[in-house]
Amino acid sequence: MISQFFVLSQRGDNIVFRDYRGEVQKGSAEVFFRKVKFWKEDGEGDAPPVFNVDGVNYFHVKVAGLLFVATTRVNVSPSLVLELLQRIARVIKDYLGVLNEDSFRKNFVLVYELLDEVIDFGYVKTTSTEVLKSYVFNEPIVIDAARLPSLGPAAIFMKGAKRMPGTAVTKSVVANEHGGRKREEIFVDIIEKISLTFSSSGYILTSEIDGTIQMKSYLSGNPEIRLALNDDLSIGRDYGGSSGSGSVVLDDCNFHESVHLDSFDIDRTLTLVPPDGEFPVMNYRMTQEFRPPFRINALIEEAGPLKAEVILKVRAEFSSSINANTILVEMPLPTYTTRVTFELEPGAVGNTTDFKEANKRLEWGLKKIVGGSEHTLRAKLTFSQESHGNIVKESGPVSMTFTIPMYTASRLQVKYLQIAKKSKTDNLYRWVRYVTQANSYVARL
Fold it and tell me: Is the peptide bond before 153 cis (omega within 30 degrees of 0)?
């Protein structure tokens, strides 16, 4: 049960505000934004997704540069409210096609109609785009995605490298295109997030893949779809026990309610009639050994009085036909570091280096890394005092974020995507995309 729901821009402007129960003061949006904006002044980084101010619980998620917020005075499950906020954002995006401040303002009547159908007196009724189509009749004013300006300052409220690739699909699921016809197409995204920890000697201590198969359908007539995965896919760590080295072994998985598993055990085929909107066909987890996409080597050693040197090496372990992008390597330095000078390898292009003095952090950004290549950064540190302990213990660990299109660490693949259509004259477009991202990619010193 929630009391209020509102959406704020990156400047703190109220775009949408709905008070369902009248239990929380009207100025809650201003209180929330001030708290989030100045949270970093306490040196604790970004504001947590849930916090309490004067007896009011604030829940928020950041989606495409916007803050989706709910408030309540009662004790409710945080995970329930955060999931609700994500689903509201997804429903609104399904209707508007593009999720940004401009699309909200041009479609505020439709957005308020959706909110009134999703939540009644603070209680959730439905978050299904399929169900809402029977109750919501306003047509969206479609924003041309090609003319969208860059988000600019909104970048402080979003993690661009971690955005779902499904956001590239910027069409409304309810609006027709020019000429009154819909283009018959379906998008399938296999998205994997890697959590991995290297020891100081380069061995893998922990490794895990959290994956999802996302689908967004623009097919008319709700045709049946068959989605085939790897033949050698196994579910459960103890499955078979003697599976080949090339097989894909998942620890566990779950499926969307629309998926039929009649033939899944036989030929690893999923059958479903996709509902409207974007939805996860399958979520899975893998903790079996897999080849990490990157190897990180980090070294820090003293180079004289009040000086030290850091050497960072990143090697891409995937094929040379694949490129990683939006790479960022970060390393906390000793608190008494005052100055850092950087030295890149000859011919390095698209590299950025920075020393964040406020939190004593070294940052190394790479625009692109080609598979099989190795990149090195040297940094010379200057200290304000001598180190009285072990300099290694006062530094690190090294963390890394990245996005690798058309690559999956688990080797899970879509073999084919069949659409059962009555008419063979229809032009059907199938799009299958893969992306691997870092969730927590850490190397200890």
Answer: no
Phi, psi values for residue 195, rounded to 5°: -115, 120
Spatial contact of 30 and 6, defined as CB atoms under 8 Å apart: no
| Distance in angstroms (rounded) separating the CA atoms of residues 4 and 23 | 9
In tens, the pLDDT along 276-316 reads 878 899 999 999 889 999 999 999 988 888 899 999 999 99
Which residue, among 387, 200, 393, 199, has the nearest Cα to 308 in the 3D structure? Answer: 387
Give CA angle at 225 (192, 406), nearest 5°. 30
SS3 11: coil
Beta partners for 227?
270, 417
pTM of this structure: 0.76
Distance CA(336)–CA(357), nearest Å, equals 10
Interstrand relation of 185-198 and 429-443 (parallel, antiparallel or unpaired): parallel
Question: What digits encode the pLDDT tens for the residues 163-210?
Answer: 334 434 567 777 665 555 667 888 999 999 999 999 988 899 999 999
